[in-house]
C-alpha cells in the first residue's frame, strides 16, 4: 500500500461526521491537507495510508463539524443585557434603535470581535450576519480566522452607516468587491424586513442579489405584530408581499418565520426558500413558537441561528439546538418531535445548505477542514451511550476544547490563536459605560 503525505492527521475516540450516511466513527481519524479534509475513517486505516507533517492525538474527545450560526447581529454583543424582558417592538424602537444611532466603527468592530471570540469558544465556525457597518465586522472576521457571510442591513431610514438609503448601495457594492474571492468571507444582500423598507428597496436589493449570485436574506413573519403591520401597510401578509414583488426561490433565506400559514409553508418548500429558526430569541421576546415540525414536513430546509446577543443573550449554538428540540416537543406535545439528529442537522448541514456554502457542515473528503472537539470527560458528558443525543441534550458548548477553521486551530484548551481576550475584556468595560450612558437617555 502506498503512503501519501498530508498536513495533519487528527485522531479522536469518536468522530461524528454528519455525512450523508450520518456515520459515527469510533477510534477515528481525520486527514487534512491544505485546509481540506482528504479522508475520514478508522485510525488504523488512516495511519497506514497517510504520513502527516503533524499528528494531533486528542484521545477522549468527540470531533464533529463546526456549527453554522445562520442568523446573527454580531456586534450587538455590546447590547447584551442592556434591555431585557421586553416585547420585540418595544425592545427595538425604544431601547435598541435609539442607541444604535450613535454607534461608531470602533464599537462595531469591538462588538464583532467579541462575538467571534464567543462563537469560536462554543464551537461555531461560520456565521451569517446582518448588521451595520459590516466592513468592520468583516475586518473582525478576518482577524479572528472564523468564516462568515456578511450583509449590510438595508433600511428605508438613516442608519449609522448611511444618511439615506441611496447611500447604502455603494457601501454594499464595496463590501462585495472587497471580499470577492476571499476564502473565509462571503457577502449577501440583506434588507432588514418588509416593515422597515419599501417596495423599491426590496426590488432593487433582489436584483442586486441576482446580479451577484448571492443569497438574499431578511427577517420574515417574526411575530403576529409584524404580520398585522404588513397587512396595514401593504394589504398583504409578509410572504405574499415579497412574492408580489417577484422575490422567491432558493436564494431566499428567511429569519424567524414564527407566524406562517400552512399554505405559506408549502409555497416556501416549492420555491426552495430556507428558514432560520431562532428559538431562544423568539421565546425571550415572546414572538411565538415557530412551527418547525410543520415546516420540515412540508419540505423546507430549516437551520438554526442565535439572533443577536441583545435578544438571546448568547451566541451559543449548542444551547440553541437544545432549545429548538425541546420547544418543538412542547409545541406539538409529541416527545418524538425534532429529535436529536434533526437538531444537529439544523446546526450543521442545513445551515451550510441555506448559506450556499456546502463545503461546510460535515466531515468527509473534499469538505473544508472546519471542525471542533468536545471533551468527553466533562461530568455532563458521562456516561456516553449516544453521541448525537449528548450533542443536542447534554452539551453546553463549554465542553469545546478545540476549534479549527480551514485547517487552522483558532482555539485550544483556553487559548486563542489570534485573539486577545484580556484586551477584549478591558475594552468591554469601556464600551459598557458608553452604552449605559446613552441607554439611560432613552428611558
Automatic annotation (TrEMBL):
Cofactor: Zn(2+)
Amidohydrolase-related domain mapped to chain residues: 62-410
Pfam family, one: Amidohydro_1
Cofactor note: Binds 1 zinc ion per subunit.
The keyword Signal is annotated on this UniProt entry: no
Molecular function GO terms recorded: 5'-methylthioadenosine deaminase activity; metal ion binding; S-adenosylhomocysteine deaminase activity
Reaction(s) the record says it catalyses: S-methyl-5'-thioadenosine + H2O + H(+) = S-methyl-5'-thioinosine + NH4(+); S-adenosyl-L-homocysteine + H2O + H(+) = S-inosyl-L-homocysteine + NH4(+)
Domain Aminodeoxyfutalosine deaminase/Imidazolonepropionase-like composite: 28-50
Entry EC no(s): 3.5.4.28, 3.5.4.31
The protein's name: 5-methylthioadenosine/S-adenosylhomocysteine deaminase
Source species: Desulfocurvibacter africanus subsp. africanus str. Walvis Bay
Lineage: Bacteria, Pseudomonadati, Thermodesulfobacteriota, Desulfovibrionia, Desulfovibrionales
UniProt gene name: mtaD
Amino acid at each position: 500500500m502506498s503512503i501519501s503525505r498530508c498536513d495533519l492527521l487528527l485522531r479522536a475516540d469518536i468522530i461524528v461526521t454528519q455525512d450523508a450516511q450520518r456515520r459515527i466513527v469510533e477510534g477515528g481519524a481525520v486527514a487534512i491537507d491544505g485546509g481540506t479534509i482528504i479522508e475520514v475513517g478508522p485510525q488504523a486505516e488512516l495511519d497506514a495510508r497517510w504520513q502527516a507533517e503533524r499528528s494531533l492525538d486528542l484521545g477522549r474527545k468527540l470531533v464533529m463539524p463546526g456549527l453554522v450560526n445562520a442568523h446573527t447581529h454580531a456586534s450587538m454583543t455590546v447590547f447584551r443585557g442592556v434591555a431585557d424582558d421586553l416585547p420585540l417592538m418595544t425592545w427595538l424602537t425604544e431601547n435598541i434603535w435609539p442607541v444604535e444611532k450613535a454607534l461608531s466603527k470602533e464599537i462595531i468592530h469591538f462588538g464583532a470581535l467579541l462575538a467571534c471570540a464567543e462563537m469560536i469558544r462554543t464551537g461555531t465556525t461560520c456565521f451569517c450576519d446582518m448588521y451595520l457597518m459590516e466592513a468592520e465586522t468583516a475586518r473582525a472576521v478576518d482577524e479572528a480566522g472564523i468564516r462568515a457571510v456578511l450583509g449590510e442591513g438595508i433600511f428605508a431610514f438613516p442608519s449609522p452607516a448611511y444618511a439615506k438609503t441611496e447611500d447604502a448601495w455603494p457601501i454594499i457594492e464595496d463590501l462585495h468587491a472587497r471580499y470577492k474571492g476571499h476564502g473565509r468571507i462571503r457577502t449577501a444582500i440583506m434588507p432588514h424586513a418588509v416593515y422597515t423598507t419599501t417596495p423599491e428597496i426590496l426590488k432593487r436589493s433582489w436584483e442586486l442579489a441576482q446580479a451577484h449570485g448571492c443569497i438574499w436574506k431578511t427577517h420574515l413573519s417574526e411575530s403576529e405584530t409584524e404580520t398585522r403591520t404588513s397587512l396595514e401597510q401593504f394589504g398583504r401578509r409578509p410572504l405574499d408581499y415579497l412574492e408580489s414583488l417577484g422575490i422567491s426561490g432558493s436564494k431566499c433565506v428567511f429569519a424567524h418565520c414564527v407566524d406562517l400559514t400552512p399554505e405559506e409553508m408549502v409555497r416556501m418548500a416549492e420555491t426552495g426558500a430556507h428558514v432560520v429558526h431562532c428559538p431562544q430569541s423568539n421565546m425571550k421576546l415572546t414572538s411565538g413558537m415557530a412551527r418547525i415540525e410543520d415546516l420540515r414536513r412540508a419540505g423546507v430546509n430549516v437551520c438554526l441561528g442565535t439572533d443577536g446577543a441583545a435578544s438571546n443573550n448568547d451566541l451559543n449554538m449548542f444551547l440553541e439546538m437544545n432549545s429548538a428540540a425541546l420547544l418543538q416537543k412542547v409545541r406539538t406535545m409529541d416527545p418524538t418531535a425534532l429529535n436529536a439528529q434533526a437538531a444537529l442537522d439544523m446546526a450543521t448541514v442545513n445551515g451550510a445548505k441555506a448559506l450556499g456554502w456546502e463545503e461546510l457542515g460535515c466531515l468527509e473528503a473534499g469538505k473544508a477542514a472546519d471542525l471542533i472537539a468536545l471533551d468527553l470527560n466533562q461530568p455532563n458528558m458521562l456516561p456516553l451511550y449516544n453521541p448525537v443525543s449528548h450533542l443536542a441534550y447534554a452539551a453546553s458548548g463549554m465542553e469545546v476544547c478545540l476549534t479549527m477553521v480551514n485547517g487552522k486551530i483558532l482555539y485550544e484548551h483556553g487559548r486563542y490563536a489570534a485573539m486577545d481576550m484580556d484586551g477584549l475584556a478591558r475594552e468591554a468595560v469601556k464600551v459598557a459605560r458608553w452604552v449605559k450612558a446613552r441607554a439611560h437617555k432613552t428611558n
